[in-house]
Amino acid sequence: MKPVVVSVVRDHVMYGKCVADNPYFADFEKVCFDNNVQNLAIPTRYNSFIDGMAPDEDRWIVFCHEDWMPRQDMSKLVSGLDKSRIYGPIGVFVQKRLLRDFIIPVGCIDMCDKNGLRHVRVGRSCPRSGRVDTLDCQCMIIHSDLLRRYGLRFDENLAFDMYVEDFCAWAHARHGIKTFVVPVICTHFSYGVTGKSFMDALEHVRKKFHKVNKSYMTVVGYKECFGKPVRPGFHHTKFPRISQRLNGLVYKVNK
Q1: What is the CATH number of the domain that holds 228?
Q2: Which residues of 14-45 are buried (b: 16+ CB within 10 A; e: fewer)?
Q3: Whether the predicted pLDDT of 243 surpasses 50
């Protein structure tokens, strides 16, 4: 069965460039939820896809933003993955040490604005898959068998933020399912923001996980914690922004 890429779309030009007409998604079925007609929350859209899966559906599913563009063969990438795990291109985990907690970013992506300008490369390279607690919402890869076996769904109390972080943390807290970053050459035509929508979503997730005996962090708000509070004096390691020669230009970015 062909793998499938599922996106919620408002900018069809961007979606065409990044997903629908992307040769690296050539072997994928495309499922596009048009949010120009009815602007529903992304978890609601994703759950409608999950609810419509056939009982014998057996394939990899990529849930990704309309502006997330892989630049390598995604069919080849998913064919080598473990069906019992959740995957994505960039994530973060909390490492418990003797005296304090360390927040460790994993994975590396390119980011730019909607016009393809102001490129930066963000993160830490991961030559092989690396364990994380949560992924960023831009892309999550999961097998249909894992969704069906545990009845996994996205939290529809969330709208446009934190729904993948919540999904990964809930899958681990309730079912022991592990999440990994898999190296993907990709570009996200967006920068993460932590405005009111993000903070409202974070507050909901904090209430949901307040009794969970584990600390979870987010990629966008890398200092924002939910679950068990990190220990006082924790050390956070920023996602480094690495100077790279992109599109023939050198952009000055901060580490």
Answers
A1: 3.90.550.10
A2: bbebbbbebebbeebeebbbebeeeeebbbbb
A3: no
Q: DSSP letter at 23?
A: G
SS3 193: coil
Examine residue 255 and state whether it is found in any structural domain, yes or no: no
Q: What is the DSSP letter of 64?
A: E
Tokens of 163: 């729904």
Establish if 46 belongs to a structural domain: yes
52-63 residue pLDDT tens: 999 999 999 999
Cα Rg, the chain, nearest whole Å: 18
The secondary structure of residue 161, as a DSSP letter, is S
- For residue 153, is it within any domain? yes
Angle, in degrees to the nearest 10, between helices 163-175 and 196-208: 10
Over residues 57-72, the mean pLDDT reads: 98
What is the average pLDDT value for the chain, to the nearest integer? 87
Give the C-alpha separation, 150 to 178, whole Å: 13
Determine contact, residues 24/70, Cβ cutoff 8 Å. Answer: yes
Residue 31 belongs to some domain of the structure:
yes
- Nearest Cα residue to 78 out of 51, 105, 101, 58: 58
Instruction: Please name every residue paired with 91 in a beta bridge, in sequence order, or none if there are none.
Output: 106, 135
| Residue range(s) defining the domain that contains residue 28 | 4-250
Give the number of domains in the chain. Answer: 1
